[in-house]
Design a protein that fits this description.
This protein is mainly alpha-helical. About 60% of the residues lie in helices and about 5% in strands. It has a single domain (about 1-360), classed as Orthogonal Bundle (P1 Nuclease).
Length: about 350
């Protein structure tokens, strides 16, 4: 019972509401802002289409609120596009919530892990836990499908914007197994460090989700997006040499997983487990709910994050946020081109059929 409850707690903490988000809102919003500018640079003709499509989102209220105050159609489209990237987190606890869609977690196994744990991990046959990779494939297919309605494509775009960002966050693609964490550390949600910015204990998952970006004000989002593009230009990512017509989501997730191997767990960062994690399951869940909903940490102290590690972590996080933005733009442009070809081909076929039918009736 406790093992199953721990899995529930890990999932709730890693992907629940309150302070625990998939990246945090600012990171997703910055990624979308970067992607929007890239799409406009490559294909300005898509801007109006994107705006009109997002106006058809099946959960329209957040998008209309986000677009309020915009003075131009481009700015309305941009604000709705940015809202689309955070919308799946804003929808937590509603009928639109899809808990398993936010991660594709590959294992890291510490040397002290038991054979039972190693056998447990091996039973996955190399497959990650979580549906993010399959979800991305589905959303791209919907976006490029001429038979999909504008509302379906708008919903697919929101999930694509969000989940592609998620798989660039190392904690969303990693579970850590050891003697202390025989069933995994819940994507870092059961491992605590001291948050340098909040002066409180926080989970490694939330630390990476939030990194140093804590403001959702549009002026801050725009400033960070411009700074990141300058610091991490396209040419600094050799993996962007190929276009987005054949995205390899698994490889992209494994890139972030490698950061977890080499840096997150490979640099000797100290972290601790909640000392009461073996307590009665109901009380444990209560503690974690207080943390998720109200930010009340179960721990009063935790190991400090060294200054060098914190600085290097920002470089990794901000680089990944920027890379995700470029990739989002590339895949959306490729999907739009495919959609245009499919619609043109379908139109030609229908026109030919009409001509044949017309001649047959003459």
């Amino acid at each position: 019972m406790l093992k199953s409850m721990m899995s529930i707690v890990a999932g709730a903490t890693a992907f629940g509401v309150g302070p625990a988000m998939a990246w945090d809102h600012p990171s997703h919003m910055i990624t979308a802002a970067i992607a929007f500018e890239e799409i406009e640079r490559m294909r300005p003709d898509l801007m109006e289409r994107i705006g009109l499509m997002l106006m058809r989102h099946p959960d329209p209220a957040p998008f209309w609120v986000a677009a309020s105050g915009a003075k131009t159609s481009k700015e309305r489209a941009r604000r709705m596009f940015i809202e689309g990237a955070r919308w799946p987190d804003d929808s937590k606890g509603t009928n639109n919530d899809r808990l398993s869609w936010h991660s594709a977690r590959f294992p890291i196994i510490a040397d002290d892990a038991s054979q039972e744990t190693k056998d447990f991990v091996a039973s996955r046959d190399g497959d990650p836990v979580g549906d993010a990779l399959e979800v991305l494939e589905l959303q791209v297919a919907v976006m490029a499908n001429p038979e999909a309605g504008a509302d379906e494509r708008s919903l697919a775009l929101s999930w694509f914007l969000h989940v592609l960002g998620d798989i660039h966050q190392p904690m969303h693609v990693t579970d850590y197994f050891s003697a202390e964490y025989p069933t995994g550390n819940g994507a870092g949600a059961l491992s605590y460090v001291w948050d340098p910015m909040q002066e409180s204990a926080t989970t490694m998952h939330i630390l990476w989700d939030s990194n140093s970006l804590r403001s959702t004000a549009l002026e801050d989002i725009d400033r960070h997006a411009a700074d990141f593009v300058e610091a991490y230009p396209r040419e600094s990512f050799p993996q962007l040499a190929s276009d987005g017509s054949q995205p390899d989501f698994r490889s992209w997730a494994l890139e972030a997983h490698q950061i977890a191997i080499d840096f997150v767990y490979g640099e000797g960062l100290e972290f601790v487990k909640d000392p009461d994690s073996d307590m009665d399951a109901e009380k444990l869940v209560g503690k974690m709910v207080n943390y998720v909903l109200f930010g009340i940490s179960p721990l009063e102290e935790a190991p400090e994050v060294p200054a060098e590690y914190w600085e290097s972590m920002q470089d990794h996080a901000h680089s990944q946020i920027t890379l995700a933005g470029y990739r989002i733009a590339d895949v959306i442009v490729a999907a739009a081109d495919k959609l245009l070809v499919e619609k043109t081909l379908t139109g030609q076929i229908l026109e030919s059929m009409d001509n044949v039918q017309s001649r047959a009736t003459q």
